[in-house]
Amino acid sequence: MPTPDRPLSPHLQVYKLHTKIAPLLSIAHRLTGVALAFLGTLFLIYWVGAAAYGPEAFATAQAVFSSPLGLLMLFGWTVVLFYHLANGVRHLVWDTGLELSNEGVRRTAWVMLGSVLGLTVLAWVVGLIVLAL
Amino acid sequence: MDTKSRSMQSALGRARGLGSAKADAAGHWSAQRITAVALVPLALWFVFAAVIGNIDADHAAFRAWIAQPINATLMMLFIFTSFHHGALGMIVVLEDYVHAPGAKHITIMLAKMAAAAGGLFCAICVLTLALGG
What we know:
The complex is a heterodimer of chains A (133) and B (133). Chain A has helices spanning 21-53, 55-66, 68-95, 102-132. Chain A is mainly α and 133 residues long. In chain A, helix 1 packs across helix 3 (68-95) and helix 2 packs across helix 3. Chain A starts with 20 loop residues before the first helix and ends with a helix. Chain B is mostly helical and 133 residues long. In chain B, helix 5 (69-97) packs antiparallel against helix 6 (101-131).
């Protein structure tokens, strides 16, 4: 059965992803989503699981997350989470029919990337202040 | 357009089941958006209140925090919504990129089971901390 004009999922081999920002940001939404579904959930399971298993396990988990490698992982987690969050809001805006032009895609891309930067900086400034108090 | 004039089948009947989801794509679509909208405030609360607020908490402090009904409720909402949203997203990714029918159905089934198990474990951990003696 012919199915013309059917929207296609992001294709990884055909398009020149490295020369255009829109498809790169699009596939990054999926990659960050998959990362959150695999690794983000594991962080959550480990954290609340350690707390439920008792003081020793929770102390170990808190030490793991506040070690240099743990902080690096948490930094990556905040970037990935805020990217998927901000770009997800961008998709929700598109779902209403707004900003669906080439200019809209470019404009919202910069707003989204600015939001990711702003939220990441905010989270780490607040986090480091709370830690210092 | 010859099929249109010859067939007794309605346009909707012909279109149904042709997408990569095969069935209930509209229900999946709206569930993904509803969980996405809910996760905007829930994820921000989780980063800034649950994680940063407990950044240097010991077990007693974390337990006291999670025992507050509002925190336990928001944690449970975050857990169920994020695992549900993650499963919906993983299902779409698997439908798009795993082409062999057997592998596709098995990986989708495993994604659903993993999300249900992970979400249930996190929820039980929260209940253990909040209600356990």
